[in-house]
Amino acid sequence: MSKSFKTSVNKTHDFDFTEAQISALDIVEKSKNKYHIIESNQSYQATIVASNFNKKTYTIQLNGNTYEVNISDELDLLIGELGLEVATEKKENDIKAPMPGLIVSVDVKVGQEVKEGEGILVLEAMKMENTLQAPRDGVVKSIAVQSGDKVEKNTVLIEME
């Protein structure tokens, strides 16, 4: 099943994309944060000017025009539909379950350094597998769950330092 994404551009235009549509693009990374993209024989020069991973907002320059882009994945949409809020600034060291579910895999070890946005574990909820990502750079201090564990909303899964 292909992941889907909802994007908002300049808070005025909304677009839906699937992982397959994104994969179909011809994208070449020219240098850090600079890309050449070809879509339907149309060429684009893109630069990621600024990004806030926690808020999933990006400032992108596309062929000289600047756009503010917000990207939501299936988990973000589900959390919104359920009325659950995720902290926009993740200063806590505890990574908690955003919803009840089953731990499918734990992809980090105690003492491992992780980068912001790196997948740290997979939580299955409502028949969907959701990869929880590190909210910031840090070191895994402790892991409170293992594969196969059932967890409730707000259960501490991983502690970071």
Explain how this protein is built.
By secondary structure, this protein is mostly beta strands. It has two domains: 69 residues, no CATH class; 71 residues, RNA polymerase II/Efflux pump adaptor protein, barrel-sandwich hybrid domain (OB fold (Dihydrolipoamide Acetyltransferase, E2P), Beta Barrel). Helices cover 9% and strands 54% of the residues. The chain is built from two helices and 15 strands. Strands 2-1-7-6-5-4-3 form a seven-stranded antiparallel sheet. Strands 8-15-13-10 form a four-stranded antiparallel sheet, with no helix packed on it. A hairpin with a 3-residue loop joins β1 and β2. The radius of gyration is 17 Å and the shape is globular. The model has no long low-confidence stretch (mean pLDDT 87).
Q: Report the helical percentage.
A: under 10%
CATH class assignment of the largest domain: Mainly Beta
Could you list the spans in which at least 5 consecutive residues all have pLDDT below 50? none
| Strand order in space, largest sheet | 2-1-7-6-5-4-3
Task: Note the total helix count.
Answer: 2
In this structure, how is the largest beta sheet organized? 7 strands, antiparallel
Q: What's the domain count?
A: 2
Pattern of helices and strands:
EEHEEEEEHEEEEEEEE
Alpha-carbon Rg, integer: 17 Å
CATH-derived architecture of the largest domain:
Beta Barrel
What structural class do the secondary elements suggest? mainly beta
